[in-house]
Amino acid sequence: MPADIIVGAQWGDEGKGKIIDVLTGSYDVVVRYQGGANAGHTVIVDNQKYVLHLLPSGILHKGKLNIIGNGVVIELEELIKEIQTLINRGIKITSKNLMISENAHIVLPYHKILDSARETKSGAKKIGTTARGIGPAYTDKYSRTGIRIRDIFDDEKLLNKIEMNLNEKNYILKNYYGLEELSEKEIYQNILKQREYIRPFVGDTIYFLNELLKKNKKILFEGAQGSLLDVDFGTYPYVTSSNPTIGGVMTGSGISYKYINKVIGIAKAYQTRVGSGPFPTEMEKDIQQKIRDIGAEYGATTGRPRSCGWLDLVALKYVVDISGLTEIILTKIDVLSTLKKIKVCIKYEYNGKKTDRFIPDGMELYNVRPVYIELDGWMQDLSKIRTYKKLPVAVKKYVKFIEEYTGIKISKISVGPDRKQIFNKK
Ligand code: IMP
Predict the structure, then answer these.
(1) What is the value of pTM for the model shown?
(2) Residues in contact with ligand 1 (CB, 6 Å cut-off)
(3) I need a labelling partner for 17 at 20 to 30 A (CA). Which of 33, 36, 135, 297 fits?
């Protein structure tokens, strides 16, 4: 079975970009299957920092094919900017290493404006989105009014679709939000320019991927966001609008479950959250600031400071179930090195009772109180360690505790942002 999957096992920002970059060497193809430019995958190669929003992380490797699947929502301006920036930095991007699904939907200017306008109007109840138009773009996809990549190559169809959408969107922008109407001509003309740039990359990724699988090519699926942000399984409504969990792979790329081998969950040794929504294990403010600074916990897409919390094993075990994780890669354990004691959440107290069941609801989850155990810290720099054997005993105990609770093996441990700062847990 030639397909492996990387999923974020928390609320995103688990360090997936780096892991995908490290693993890519063993694969022929890397595929993004959901989300859009709300993602921000930070990869550090030879002391150079790259932040990828839409391009699969395999783009930084020579000789790998990168596919943007049908489940992704693509903001053309952002995609072109991202490709061009990498080309300017010496990365080769051609139709040989990048393919974009003709069935992927595009994010239009009105999606971004509606995203921000809705957030502003919601005030304290806002979701805290990345303002990249993700929710409104997926809304149109499911309302069957969205514009797909394939539509932009047919002038008449494109113009009709923009017109139909703007009739509705301009009414809402003007009358509900009191904003300016958008010009149909401007949107159309812009897309005509953008489509020439992306034309060489566009193709039938669904057919192509299945052909590659039949030839036993090794494929890595790169999830964006995290499982707890899944629109079905996360802390709704404080979620994104796609399925970062395993189901998203099939609907977002067109492959069958029968090709899936490993489902690798990426989890930080603590956890973070950006945007609104419940976060039961949020740390005390002073520890949070310390962890945020050491772990550089600021959004790669928006620059927002991330809230930091203790590892929530109730949530992690839930993610093991919903995505069928076969292993976990533990990241950023080095960030905890200055703490004498480390808390881990092993149960929730909910309605006066202790439970180890996660509550997948963004309102109800506010009512749980985390039950912790405290483990010893190691108070030692881990960033230069390159073998599991050399890790302090307290780290090994921490790792073992996670494995025993979740019933899943930790396969690798990452101790810093560089490609070299990772090793197998044997
Ligand atoms: P949206 O995806 O921009 O609509 O944002 C919805 C929620 O998902 C917000 O809480 C965002 O902060 C969060 N979110 C979206 N993308 C990411 C990501 O890549 N990492 C972490 N959180 C994200």
Answers:
(1) 0.96
(2) 12-13, 38-40, 127-130, 132, 134-135, 224-225, 229, 238, 240-241, 274-275
(3) 135
